[in-house]
Amino acid sequence: MMLKKTIFSLFLLVFLNCTKTDKYSTVNASLIDVIPESPSKMETPPPPMEVAKNEVPGEVISPKKTDTISKKIIKNGDMEIAVPNLLDAKKKVSEIIKNNKAYLQSETFRNSDRSENINLVIRVPHQNFDAIINSFSDGIGAVEAKTVKAEDVTEEYTDVSIKLENKRIYLEKYREMLKNAASTKDMLEIQENIRALEDEIDVAEGRLRFIDDRVNYSTLELLLFKEKARTSATSKIGFGSRFGDSIAEGWNSFVSFLLGLISFWPFFIIIPLLIFAWKKWRRKK
Known about the structure:
Layout: H1 2-34, H2 48-54, E1 73-82, H3 86-99, E2 103-111, E3 115-125, H4 129-137, E4 142-152, H5 154-179, H6 184-216, E5 217-227, H7 239-262, H8 265-284
Parallel strand pairs: 1-5
Antiparallel strand pairs: 1-4, 2-3, 3-5
Keywords: Coiled coil, Membrane, Transmembrane, Transmembrane helix
Transmembrane segments: 254-278
Organism: Kaistella chaponensis
């Protein structure tokens, strides 16, 4: 009889322990799939592509949304145009900018002894970039320099888009896990991972917006300048200017020599005294 009671008690303990284990397994099952266990602190979530391959078996994130990305070409240009009249040239440039649906990003004016110039930074719709360059080349003035560059950023744009889409999918998984968090510690760790992913998503979205802006609107730096006629006040080539410069340099050299001699005044006092003392000593000898 005593043996039966002992066996029944052991069976009851084993049954209760199994029930408790099943309960914890059910609550934390969703966390095991995504949250890597650590003795102290949850590690930063691995890159989205890694997670898709390793932590969610059987699920493949396909970049279907990025398969149809069109070519992303960034065009930039620089032009230098010599003009007979700076104000007239500026008016023509403003008209061309308006006709090509472009806009002026910045304008800088500079007036020197040799020239007057205006430096313009123009943002142009990519489809009008070649047309506006041709318009500036005809009828504004003499083109002194022109540079056009094209950069293909399709690969970078596609790569950022794929990673962004994976991060968004991974973020949704964390948000679902947050609803079923078993403890405050798990909740805080999941929230920290959500915050990190949201920051990475913001950076990726900002990069895509920047690329789209540079692709949709090309950048053209235009320099308009007018050479000034040389005068006696600005020219340093004539004989009169060189003669005057020589006189000034001679006077400056004389003043420098005189000031150099004055700087030796201690020697002019001490050396005669030493000579006088030496002669007096020799007479006594």
